[in-house]
Amino acid sequence: MPEIVVLRWGHRPQRDARLTSHVVLTARALGASGLILSDIHDEKIKETVEKVTKNWGGAFFFEMEVPWKKAVKEWKKEGRIVVHLTAYGENIQTSDVLQRIKASEKDILVLVGSQKVPKEFFSESVSDFNVAIGNQPHSECACLAIFLDRFFEGKELSRKFEVAKKRIIPQKRGKKLNGK
Ligand SMILES: C[S@@+](CC[C@H](N)C(=O)[O-])C[C@H]1O[C@@H](n2cnc3c(N)ncnc32)[C@H](O)[C@@H]1O
Fold it and tell me: For the chain, which end, N or C, has fewer CB atoms within 10 Å of the first or last residue's CB respectively?
């Protein structure tokens, strides 16, 4: 299965902290291998990710400060592809864009914005595919979740996270953790 890494662009430390944390948690829980928070340093987000990974396991990586152009260039150098999630792109439901992405069998860098993204994100030199999770504007977190779930066809939801301190034992009611 190809690997997916998420690049979060445009994070504003005061305003976007909670949503960016959710984007990271969504990426990790739904099968991405890591997330790059481009162009910015935010120690709080880093701490949140490290804490979650330490407790709940898995090998998710987190990088920040890398300029987005550099991240994209490095990624493409090895022949991997870039998918930009945008309400203006090819509709994931009514077009064959997901089939074409899967057919490439390449690892994917998924770009998600927060504020209005640079125009270049839409260009061929940056994005191999511009994908819309429906053509209505909504949330980076929701669009990432749907893209990952459709890409991994739900298999990511039963994935085991190795070396976890905490593991949930699913219950019909109430809460149960390993050893408790
Ligand atoms: C809240 S939106 C930002 C909208 C911003 N005001 C603009 O005009 O670009 C934040 C991010 O969510 C993602 N997004 C929102 N709706 C989407 C959709 N329907 N399909 C795919 N991605 C979407 C995009 O990555 C977008 O950059």
Answer: C
| Listed residue (109, 116, 80, 84) closest to 97, CA to CA | 84
Rounded-to-integer distance, Cα 19 and Cα 38, Å: 15
Place of tokens 């994209």: 72
Structural contact between residues 88 and 135, judged by C-beta atoms closer than 8 angstroms: yes
Tokens coding 19: 């949503």
Where does 4-158 sit in CATH, by number? Answer: 3.40.1280.10
When pLDDT is cut at 50, 70 and 90, the band that residue 14 belongs to is confident
Distance CA 147, CA 143 (A): 6
Q: How far is the CA of 113 from the centre of ligand 1 (A)?
A: 6
| C-alpha span between 15 and 165 (Å, rounded) | 31
Q: Which residue from 23, 135, 139, 149 has its CB within 8 A of the most atoms of ligand 1, so it is best to mutate?
A: 139
Q: Mean pLDDT throughout 144-171?
A: 96
Strands (DSSP E) along the chain, which ranges? 4-8, 34-37, 61-64, 81-91, 108-112, 129-132
CA angle (153 as vertex; 149, 154 as ends), nearest 5: 65
Query: What global pTM score does this model have?
Result: 0.96
User: Which tokens is 56 given?
Assistant: 């709940």
